[in-house]
Amino acid sequence: MPQPVAIDRQRLADPALLPLADKIERGVRLTVEDGAILFRTGDLLGLGAMADAVNRAKHGNLVTFAANHHINPTNICILRKTCVFCSYARLPKEAGAYRYTMDQVWAEAATANSTLTREFHIVGGLDMHAGLAYYTEMFRGLKERHPQVHIKALTAVEIAHIARIDKMTIRDVLVALREAGLDTMPGGGAEVFSPGVRATIAEKKLSGEEYIGVHRIAHELGIRTNTTMLYGHVESIEDRMAHLAMLRDLQDETGGFLAYIPLAYHPDNNELGETLGRTGTATTGFDDLKNLAVGRLFLDNVEHIKSHWIMVSTALSQASLHFGVNDLEGTVVREKIYHEAGAHTAQAMTLAELLRLIRGAGKVPAERDSFYHVIRTDFEPDLPAAPALAGAA
Ligand code: V47
Ligand code: SF4
Predict the structure, then answer these.
(1) pTM score above 0.85
(2) Can you tell me the mean pLDDT for 341-356?
(3) CATH topology for 67-306?
(4) Residue 337: CB within 6 Å of ligand 1?
(5) Distance 306 CA to ligand 2 centre (A)
(6) Distance between CA atoms of 39 and 302, rounded to whole angstroms?
């Protein structure tokens, strides 16, 4: 049962939100139909007020971030032709295809020492030459060189790919990866679970049930994971809610999800964008905020809702701190996947910039570890301003 939370009804303009506010106040779980009402309302501020109240009851004014470093070791992917929303993957012989050698991984990770990185976030394509041995060698080598850095790596889709090419069970793959240094798993590969949508945007990718199955096994092994939904393409509101309901059900069962991150579809340089005639037009700010707020209200058993500033802009991520979000994707070094798909945001953010964003929203910044334990809140109040503001005073 969710925790009962008081809602300020003065802030709700849409009468359709009132019965939902009643439920939240009584600690009654929202249904998928309620979730659809939230997605359909024009009262964005009312929706935000409810999500904000629930978020404040869980996290007060605290907004967390992690000093992480994204590494994408291979963009070679056997699903290159069928994940029509993806701008990142390449066929092995295609221009721009790459697979890092271990030395390239060590070189890429080396900056972690000077940037105080606490987490490597490692994801890539489904590469026939990147099986279990490739990743166990990588994780062992990274742990040897950076024993203090957490490894969050490999989506459910990549785990299933490794199991297939190495002819192993999902469980055995996860056990071997954990022994080599895997700490947690990211949430990618979920897209939208509905079979109809999947047939259109990711025909050959593992099914929604299979994605849930991989996460269930990870949770049973004590490997915590994140989860996601890719929105803003061909999915309906009903598809979104069915997806969120599957995530909520698994969380009821295992409690293994750490965070939910809605991912805004970017239409540049991919077949789906062309088919939809949407090149250059990403999701709307209204829908971005709704996805975050509905995530907070419907996924009442997931503690952390994360906004990925690379995908929705730093400005919108800052606003989202009043729409149910308690975590910002942190200082990301050299992000590739969304920049291929037309994201115009910078590829990395400094600590000073992050602090400015969070404090500018009237919130208290906290650096966290990968399990969401707060590590640090004692930042200098007068850290140097971000470069863009340096000359403005
Ligand atoms: O599964 C691919 C998405 C995901 C596009 O767990 C696209 O902490 C938008 O899951 N437009 C991978 N999205 C990234 C991911 C992630 C990101 C940040 C944090 C975490 C976490 C997980 O990126 C893929 C897919 O859903 N994606 N192409 C695109 N054109
Ligand atoms: Fe490959 Fe993932 Fe891109 Fe699909 S979304 S083509 S699985 S890299």
Answers:
(1) yes
(2) 74
(3) TIM Barrel (3.20.20)
(4) yes
(5) 22
(6) 19
